[in-house]
Amino acid sequence: MSDISTIYAKDKNFPKLLKEIHLPPQLLYVRGVLKAEEHCLAVVGTRKPTRYGIEATEKIIRELAKLSNLTIVSGLATGIDTATHLGALKNNLRTIAVLGTGVDSKTIFPPQNKNLAEKIIQAGGAVISEYPEGAPGLAHHFPERNRIISGLSLGTLIIEAKEKSGALITARLSLEQNREVFCLPGSIFSSNSFGPHLFIKKGAKLVTSAEDIVEELNLPNLLEIRKEKLEILLTKEEKFILDAISNEPLTVDEIKEKTQFSTSGILSTLSMLELKGLVKRGDNGQWIGL
Predict the structure, then answer these.
(1) Cis preceding linkage at 111, omega within 30
(2) Rounded to two decimals, what is the model's pTM?
(3) What is the set of domains in the chain, with CATH numbers?
(4) Measured between alpha carbons, how far is 86 from 82 in angstroms, rounded to an integer?
(5) Cα dist. 74→148, 174, 186, 271, 288 in Å?
(6) Which residues form the Smf/DprA SLOG domain (predicted)?
(7) φ and ψ at 72, to 5 degrees?
(8) Rounded to 5 degrees, what are φ and ψ at 24?
(9) Residues 6+ apart with CB under 8 A from 225
């Protein structure tokens, strides 16, 4: 039995933002979960990124996970798209892959990202396309699908893009759809910086951290939503320690006195809470709840 569902533009679970664009798709083929309403950010870029581009992508998505509950949208291509989806999965952010092929496992392009597509679906995200099962990746499909990537999203972040990069099509479409465009600055000596610098000159928001994006989108409530979501997934030990430091910063010894947990258990639990963006260590050795 196929796990592909079909959602029409008239259906109540069709993404509302996507309905607003010029020439919205009349139907979507979906594997996974697609929601009518959610805050999305598109992240796209070159298929041949530098180490700087990969590290910047990982950094910004890691920070977004601490500051928001945004859903991350990209195109499942090699390079920045792959780093984007992997970063979202690693940091427990929902992610959506928009394809220029069918969504069935035999057709997904590039084929080396079939496993990534499965991981996205298993993590509660979605792999979607306006092309039916078995549809090949024809050249015109990819620029066409870019309007869906930007159309789902409140804004698009461009991370490294050469002069003729498809990411620049997504950025242009985002502007046409009256959405935000964010750009990571790069070296003036790198051809991968052409796209971001071009759009920065046109008025796109220059970003060096996730905070720049969250502030521009004016979505401060997303932090509280993120905390509520994570706290549901906490272990008893994590909740106990988080409660202990929620009112005042505490050292490991002070946490041990309050909880009666072992030092090794406390350190292990604090490490997990830090990864989830719920605590941080202060300069004086005290742990602080976020």
Answers:
(1) no
(2) 0.77
(3) 5-222 (3.40.50.450), 234-289 (1.10.10.10)
(4) 6
(5) 10, 13, 21, 30, 34
(6) 6-217
(7) -100, 125
(8) -70, 155
(9) 69
